[in-house]
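User: Fold both of these, please.

Assistant: Here is the first one.
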Amino acid sequence: MFSFLYFRYVFIILGGNDINTATTPATIAENLKTLVKEMKWCGIERVFFMSICQRGKFRDRSMTEVVYRKMKTSVNDKMRHFLKSDYVNGDMHIKYPQHFSGDGVHLNQSGLKKLKRVIFKTFKKTV
């Protein structure tokens, strides 16, 4: 079992892999909330969550960009209300398609630099 004994803060970055037409935003958000609660129970002071960003390609063949956007927005809204100030709006910083590689899923170098700045800025606020 992984120990969180030495960590005060955790920054969760989620992709859109778990968003599919076989699950609901409520289920995804509840699973994430459980994860956050368990981390805090293990002694983590703060769990930061970066919103799920837009993406261009989907494993689920029945997923469309419109359905994905609605589902990710719903999950993000639920997490924003749950985490309050520990919620980080990734869509403000990381834009599709300019920060994504040609596969439409993973960040390119520019996107990774943006992500790094977001993480550093978030942790800097804790000092």
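And the second sequence with its predicted structure:
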Amino acid sequence: MTGLRMAGLIAAGLALAAGYALLQPPEETAAAAASDIQVMEGLQVTYLATPALLDELGLHPRREFGVADNGNVVLNTEEGVFELAVHDGALESSTLYGEPLDAMALDSGAVTLGIRGRFFGQLGPEGFDKALPLPEGELYLAASSRPGWVYLVRNEPGGGRLYGIWDNGTLSTLAELPSRIQAVTDDERRTYVAGDDGLLAIDEETVQVISKATADFPPADALAARGGKLFATVNDRVYVVADGVMLAIARGIAPQLALHGDRLYCWDPERRLLLHIDIAPLYAD
């Protein structure tokens, strides 16, 4: 992917599915805290962690999370980095690193990458292994579906820059936006970027505006993509975007997003709720 500079964005046509006739409350919830969450009919929700369960574990998670290749959830918390697993209906935690990271993302669900004190590195047997010094600015990481690759976002008053970091330590500039970058994800074809101006799709040669941010429809807070479908969190709703149509599949939750198989994992740091949605029906012919 070559470096791209974007300014003077134009609006793009995107139909927003009206109403919530298909949204239904879940049949069972793990706690009363989740009772107002609604999901689209036909999609199954599994609750993994609630405020009460996290309190029992003594964890105070931050915004960053990821899903390991074994399906366990990795959370960056005030107490450190922890891996959560459900065994026989019980939530268990194990410590990966005893201190919180300034930013965190997983590489292909196998390697936990992070930022500490302006250094990029990974968690290893001896702790945090520094690998690359980073520039000044507001920095965060975003996972990629491509092995050996992770995104670095740098936001400054003048706009946002998107970088790629290879597993050999190479840092490449991918794009520069005139406003801050809110979220990044990719699939096998494109990189998707949510910024103050709207939602963009970037490939090797082009930049496509999927939707333009408005007062009624602000920028997405989180993104995940697979198989031609893009999932986005906007305010307290989760949408799926495909074929020019944006459809709400959940509301009452404002999660960070991660995909693993046919599951869309949702972590809402404000409500301290962790769940996954079975999205296989969305891919059915």
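Residues 217 and 234 are 8 Å apart (CA to CA).
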